[in-house]
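User: My collaborator sent over this chain with a note saying "see what the structure looks like." That's all I know about it. Can you take a look?
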Amino acid sequence: MSAPHDVRVPAADGTELVAHVTGAGEPLVCVPGGPMQASAYLGDLGGLAARRPLLLLDLRGTGGSPAPADPAAYRCDRQVDDLEALRRHLRVDRLDLLAHSAGAAVAVLYAARHPERVRSLVLVTPSPRVVGIEVADADRRAVAERRRGAPWFPAAWAGFERIWSGAATAEDVAAITPFLHGRWDDERRALLPVLDAGRDGAAAAAYYPDDLDPQGTRTALAALHAPVLVVAGELDVALPPDRAADYAALVPQASLAVQPGAGHYPWLDDPAAFVAAVGGFLDAHGSPAGPR
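Assistant: Without extra context I'll predict from the sequence alone. Here is the result:
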């Protein structure tokens, strides 16, 4: 066993990044979403930390990592260099990577730029923006309709209708929150402050620049030899399963795991199912877990 501890990683521009490590051995490097949210919300990923040492990276300007001098350094394509700095700091030839939601942008761009440095890649309900997959309103409607019997559905659906019409308010965005979760009860509502903590709005605004090259990224992924697991939630309106299948189809050695009853945070909706899928994939393709 090794006690949880923090590591500090000097980035190329002098920013000192902080990462939180559980256990000993070569870790699974975890990139949080948000975009630009502190990594604490990932927790132990439903118990995955009992199977693999985790390294939860606080992206620059979030959590324990200070803001960079140059705001353009928040761009997801610029933060690829931070993952490479982390790999060198760990003194490993290749990384096992897991990324959630918007964090997939950094992880996928890293795999596109440094394919030889990726041993395995797990994309958990990834944002498809950097690969140019569009999620249409009809895709979201089809998934959302499956929740029609829920007591919260009328108010949440009305919020979605206003968003789709282009007349949304901040209250409407908040109203659709239940659609991101496989279950919506008092326990999940109580967890929202944790899931929403550490978001940086200014950094998020710079995260996706207008000059990304989705086609170039798709071409690079088509040549990627590393195994990839795309984890989708059956009920996730952010990346419906059909679009997750499109994402997985971009990579020759990719597989898709659609977790039944799960939303955008599958490790919360069914921890055992999540750990079984991701842990099994890492057992087959990742580095040895190392001492615990």
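A starting point for your reply to your collaborator: The chain has a mean pLDDT of 94.
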